[in-house]
Write a structure and sequence with these properties.
The protein has 14 helices and 23 strands. By secondary structure, the chain is of the alpha+beta class. The chain has a 7-stranded mixed β-sheet, sandwiched between helices. It is globular, with a radius of gyration of 25 Å. The structure holds glycyl-adenosine-5'-phosphate. The site of glycyl-adenosine-5'-phosphate has 18 residues, from strand 10, strand 13, strand 16 and helix 10.
Length: 444
Amino acid sequence: MKKSENLMETLTGLCKRRGFIFPSSEVYGGINGFWDYGPLGAELKKTIKEAWWKNMVQDRDDIVGIDSSIVMHPRVWEASGHVDSFTDPMVDCKECKSRYRADKLQEYREELGKKGKAEGCPSCGGELTEARKFNLMFKTFVGPVESEASVAYLRPETCQSIFVNFKQVQTVSRKKVPFGIAQMGKSFRNEVTPRNFIFRSREFEQMEMEFFCQQKDEDQWLDYWKQSRFDWYVEMGVKKEKLRLRQQTPDELAHYAKAAFDVEYEFPFGWQELEGIANRGNYDLQQHSKASGKDLSYFDDEAKEHYMPVVIEPSAGVDRTLLTLLVDAYDEETMENGEERSVLRFHPRVAPVQVGVFPLSKKLAEPARKLAADLRKHFRAFYDDAGAIGRRYRRQDEIGTPYCVTFDFASQEDSCATVRERDSMKQERVSLEGLVEYLRGRFE
Ligand code: GAP
């Protein structure tokens, strides 16, 4: 089995060609750091978000969900520390004016070194300016007047609305510590150097959960959540040996964090953070209580006392998870007949198309369409009658469809169809009546 020399380039091409992901506003030349999801990408994204929501909210009785607005009161971001501290150090090349993150220069240099280019400034070799702080929040104005008083920010993380709503949500849900509040949705960061396809973009989606517990239990819950989140990626079909948990060093910790672990994945561009699991202490509740003047403490009605719970936060990225699934699933191989095929070996649970349905000949379109309609009630099914059957299989392999069902002339006689499995390419005759059960058994 061989893999493309430049996997990221190959994947970006495949994603565009097959309708997973396109550069945003491409007819105008695109806009750096923004991406659009096409039909297959949108489906995959939805599956990831639903799987996370089910795992974090619906399958448990100690976590509730919210869905809040993206634009919040600007004082939220002062109290959270983002106005002052959510910055990256930035340097400019005095010659070619390219801009870089000062803390990533070594990484860029190594990449250039690997490509056989001279080390030095990553661009043209020119002299760099001193590092300056650059705030990553996107600013906008609310209302018709563009003044300091109407400045607002697009949220750079989804969790702040969980903190400011803590009291309301706790009261209406009648949850007792330990419990969690989950939210997913768009976040925006004016990243200095968006890169590696959708890995670091300027608009992305987060899936965050803030778990409120007592201080004495903080280590136990941090352990629990880091393991639980690691296991989730394995359940989504990601290869275990490509995942690891790494503790952040003190200099890596965000301004609010007491301790943090990253779930990392081995991308073609190195081990990188997929998700952070942080102990935020009671920093955020304290800050918002102080700044708003509203008491956000929790009342323990057994001990009859108020206290600020500690927060353990697993914070994941939808887009990064999606990129991981793509990178992890991509494979190329030479088949027995000497032909090459590229295949996405998605877990059937996440594949955007779960079953392809083909009539062997267009003359069989009617019963095959009916079969596809029946299967669609249970799975994400796709009907295709264009081109030779081998080509139809290849097209489905490339988008990661785990099973294809071919309805042939014999099907009308024996009420069976041929099921072809993506990875082994083995074919099996299965009765139409038992097809749903057959597939369901293989999807678990
Ligand atoms: N509330 C904590 C927080 O936002 P973070 O480590 O800055 O922590 C959490 O972000 C996750 O959000 C990351 O692990 C990543 O999956 C995703 N993420 C952050 N910035 C991103 C970006 N520019 N593009 C895509 N995903 C991003």
